[in-house]
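Morning, I've got a small favour to ask if you have a moment. The fold is given in discrete form, as structure tokens running alongside the sequence. I'd be grateful if you could look everything over and explain what you see. No rush at all, and the record is pasted right below.
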Amino acid sequence: MPANPATPLLDTVDTPSDLRKLAPTQLRQLADELREEMIASVGATGGHLGSGLGVVELTVAAHYVFNTPDDQLIWDVGHQAYPHKILTGRRARMRTLRQGGGLSGFTRRSESRYDPFGAAHSSTSISAALGFAIANKLTDRPGKSIAVIGDGAMSAGMAYEAMNNAGAAGNRLIVILNDNDMSIAPPVGGLSAYLARLVSSRPFLELRDLARRLSRRLPRPLAQAAKKTDEFARGMAMGGTLFEELGFYYVGPIDGHNLDQLIPVLENVRDAAEGPCLIHVVTQKGKGYAPAEAAADKYHGVQKFNVVTGEQVKSSPGAPSYTTVFADALIAEANRDPRICAITAAMPSGTGLDRFTRAYPDRMFDVGIAEQHGVTFAAGLAAQGMRPFCAIYSTFLQRAYDQVVHDVAIQNLPVRFAIDRAGLVGADGATHAGSFDVTYLASLPNMVVMAAADEAELVHMTHTAAMHDSGPIAFRYPRGNGTGVPLPAVPERLEIGKGRIVREGGKIAILSLGTRLAEAIKAADQLDARGLPTTVADLRFVKPLDQDLIRRLMVTHDVVVTIEEGAIGGLGAHVLTMASDEGLTDAGLKIRTMRLPDVFQEHDGPEKQYDTAGLNAPHIVETVLKALRHNSAGVQEARA
């Protein structure tokens, strides 16, 4: 039944089953309304805009053609999934996007049955879709599995590892390559669209299958020649030879904004016996919103913005970001030393290395979404006498842990790891939190691990890392702006494994690692006001520990509290191990460790996240008071 002309089509679509009731001629209007709705939603909340705008038509077409959720639609990374969320029953909650208690900025299994697989790190979709496809095959379920992966995510080796194993899925697996950077395909025109429809059609595929069966009866040299002729002819006309060699039937490129091209090709592939299949779709990031189309980054990630003008809400200038401080410090090091070079994995602006690129383009290497390669590449540079800085977010460095262990630490090569986004990261939530780097790095022999308490310390640590040639070294720093402390004109080379006393007390000692130092100082003020003189130490290093400093504080204070922005297994565990090994707790010393809770924390504002984690000044004070009350109760019980 046609919708009321006065009623927007989008108001009639709550789930894909509603979408599939529309006539094909109505889909263009629906896509336009969906794009407007997405712009309005992200304007109110901020988030990832450009990538979602680029897949509006693809989202509509995929849900229209495939029987989701019985057919599993898996979005790589999830940045582009906002239109998908709107069409799958979550439109009313879009203004809660990335807010505390609201919708995730990525796909999430617990959020909707239309999110069959959670995603936030890239290049996982084909592997996951293959898993769904094989499970469907083994259990004789009819569902198709469709992975939508961007051309950037296709730079990761994991995508090709999955494709190399995809043959067993047969026609149950479909990969849609969303090429939004023109990095693979030439401009799309009418001829390529016609060819895509032709080679995905049932008559062509049936004819090709017949030719293949006949070729098996030919002598082997002729059969091989026929196969190569088929692949070469289609490769010359359309591209995709690489995908054919990996066992995929290639269709494309087609215009990802033309529903008249998209829908027939998707229907052909859905109904074909051929498979697995890769459909090459060319889209424009930021499509349909002039400010995004004009921006260099196509409004990939935005703050709240004025929908009419596109102007983003700017936060107060304040202190420079830690990322900017690191980038400028590294450029200063490169000015002094031609051996300094920088490596990032598809995040030049996120890590600040776009600034380094402008200063030293020949010493800056963006390896794409290939953290494993980036780390081993850095190891090779170090082995040949260069001083490489591998600048990778904490959450992404996890992807290269074997390379850190095997190619860097075991060989004791002086690779410098600049670990951005350490600790909790706010709206991006658990998938992007830098919770584990201290734990997974400080357990490695040969590794030095530092954490900056403020931006001045970050400058010192960048310099210290640059001068450290005896093995690998890592330093971590958080997302966001610094504290506003003056930056040093001349950086200091820190003594490896030595902390500093920030204030002296006599009864309580707080051992801080990283930017919780400011909260530790606030807590010390409150404890002093209660008559509990408090020492605050910035340990700077978790590996190696400043054992002399820790030992002195333990034998002269009644309570020692460690605090860090990381998971269990970090500073607290190392301090406890040292105290146990040396018998420092035998005399009744109370040690308490404060760290991130053993959960994946939900997205929220960073300060709210740390409050939820119990790592702010009031929590430090309460931890100390509980330890003292426990001491008093123990003494009274012993006397009784």
User: Anything to note?
Assistant: The two ends are 84 Å apart (CA to CA). The domain at 9-302 is CATH 3.40.50.970 (Rossmann fold). The chain is about 40% helix and 15% strand. Residues 182-188, 633-640 have pLDDT under 50 and may be disordered.
